[in-house]
Amino acid sequence: MYLLCIPLPLLVVNPPVALKPRLRWADQLEYLPQTANKLAMEEVLTLGLGGVGAVYSLALDLSKQARITTVCRSNYQVVKDNGLTIHSDSFGKFEPWRPHKVVSSTSSPEATETEYSYILVTTKALPEATPSTADILRPVVSKNTTIVLLQNGVGIEDPISAAFPENPIISCSVYLSSSQFSSGVITQTALERVVIGGFDNGVVNSMLLKNRVARFAELLRVSGANVAVNDDIQMERWKKLLWNASYNTYCTVTMMDTLTFCETVPNATELIRTCMNEVLAVSNALGHSIPPETVENLIKFTMGNGKYKPSMLLDRERGSQMEVEVLLGNPTRIAKEHGVPTPILNSLYGILSAENWKLRQG
Amino acid sequence: MYLLCIPLPLLVVNPPVALKPRLRWADQLEYLPQTANKLAMEEVLTLGLGGVGAVYSLALDLSKQARITTVCRSNYQVVKDNGLTIHSDSFGKFEPWRPHKVVSSTSSPEATETEYSYILVTTKALPEATPSTADILRPVVSKNTTIVLLQNGVGIEDPISAAFPENPIISCSVYLSSSQFSSGVITQTALERVVIGGFDNGVVNSMLLKNRVARFAELLRVSGANVAVNDDIQMERWKKLLWNASYNTYCTVTMMDTLTFCETVPNATELIRTCMNEVLAVSNALGHSIPPETVENLIKFTMGNGKYKPSMLLDRERGSQMEVEVLLGNPTRIAKEHGVPTPILNSLYGILSAENWKLRQG
User: Fold this and answer.
1) Which GO terms describe its molecular function (chains A, B) (predicted)?
2) Could you tell me if B68 and B119 are in contact, meaning their C-beta atoms sit under 8 angstroms apart?
3) Chain A partners of B254 at a C-beta cutoff of 8 Å?
4) Touching check for B61 and chain A: CB below 8 Å?
5) Which residue, among B250, B251, B254, would best test binding to A if mutated, counting the most A CBs under 10 Å from its CB?
6) Which CATH number goes with the domain that contains B141?
7) I need a labelling partner for B295 at 20 to 30 A (CA). Which of A175, A194, A249, B250 fits?
8) Chain A residue with minimal CA distance to B271?
9) What is the ipTM of this complex?
10) Is residue B5, in this structure, part of any structural domain at all?
11) What are the percentages of helix, strand and coil residues in chain B, rounded to 5?
């Protein structure tokens, strides 16, 4: 099962919500002309249509306030011809769901003819890949575009901000159990939560940024998505990194699911704890205030959660490049800048970089 | 190439020695009856006849003061029928060399009919394996037997000493480039050095222990082996562990030779240094005095030494159990007892234990 995101501890797990009551709110908007009239239709481009991309593209579409153009790569022909099959515990069953437009590339004329107010980036975060995400985005970013990053890791905003300093960037921490079983067929179960916030690069007007965040949150909320706005979105990213830089990486190095790792490896929990505490120390040095009990909560949650194959392990199993730079490389570089020792993260970074290198050799 | 041992820095690398001058000394003994008459013939059992076992069994035989019984497992029939083919830069070419006796098990009547003054253990050090080395030795250890451990790692003497507290134990740190290309065919190039010392368990009389060490060193020296006696043999073992717990382990985790690891992995040298410094800290806490420049010397030596596949990596490649407990498990447990933090060793121990577990599942 292709689980794109990481389950989180109790505080973020919400009971599955039935489809009808969720949609009712959005549906009602049609019968509330005094509200509906105020709402402009947003042109939204979504880049990447895997598990996360498909579910949030659908969610935005369900808001009836966004018109979705999707860029598909591996599943372009399938989606173009048949749309997507989406079975979502949070948003319902769609056989098929069709975006307004399907394009094969950001530089295709069908992609560039529209001015997008939001571009959702849900591709795997591989800053070392060519072409870079910034280069892929260039043909479709216009003056009024807000770029929304629904990706793992830390430090992912920097190259985008460097390429488009005038454009607002929204950073998101996503918790979504979704999978693409076969090309164009998406299943999402139980967990759906997204925390969003503006990325302050010191250039974009902070009120504009705030408004763009609020509007994007509204688009998601109106569709029934479980969305929260947090002004300290970087804290949310580091909180998610606690899990991703520990369980995700150790499971990938050992090629074991979480449960097998915990039951097999001597002092597994102590290894995870040491690793998480390094992430916590860097996060503290950056001024974020992740509650220290988060570490133990995450361990308890993971131990009680049965066999789970993290995303990076799935990448390694299928021979895909892993998100080593954004989950380990950037954290260790940030740690070094702030004088925080991270020997374990450095070590895992070295080991998994070696694996990525081998995967590149084929 | 099956390199059983680790090359060491300049201080232990000796120029290859031609065969003739080496043997001349031993040969001359035959013409010195006043010396030869004083020397008793020692009954020696060697357990394990891979690269290290074969070369030192040969060396002892060349002394003409030892009669060698060897226990062979995988290569029993080959050695029984044809002897061993040994091409040794240090001791010469033998096609074949035959031990006095070849036995298939320590409990076979041909093995137990003799009283051994020395038993050389050159098997891989796997304290977790069954039957244990102590159990394998039990049928052949008698009152006057000295047990000689030519194995990697630290803490390997404890289970042997617990099983045979009255028997002297000699501990050895071996540097030998030897390989068994096919069953019964051994090649040893250039490097040959062994440092030996008594293992003080507080029970064995220290003068007896000293004498047994001196006699064993004499047996080796007389054959032309490059042998040194060191009263702090544990220091020698920890010094060798500096390399074995760092390059050996990281190369095994990444499945890369030393050069590829150094050239591919970000901050490879820093990872190695951190790891070696943990070993050094434990060694210091135990009261050994490894010169601190040893770390940088080992790094310089390894960097300049080209592609080299460490023993544990070779084990992993061929699907054999790796010496994880004696190279990482024991050091981390000893560190914990002495309150020395070893996060990197703990981490590598966890990761490689997971690999050993997978190898056991087959």
Assistant:
1) 2-dehydropantoate 2-reductase activity
2) no
3) 350-351, 354-355
4) no
5) B254
6) 3.40.50.720
7) A249
8) A347
9) 0.86
10) no
11) 45, 20, 35
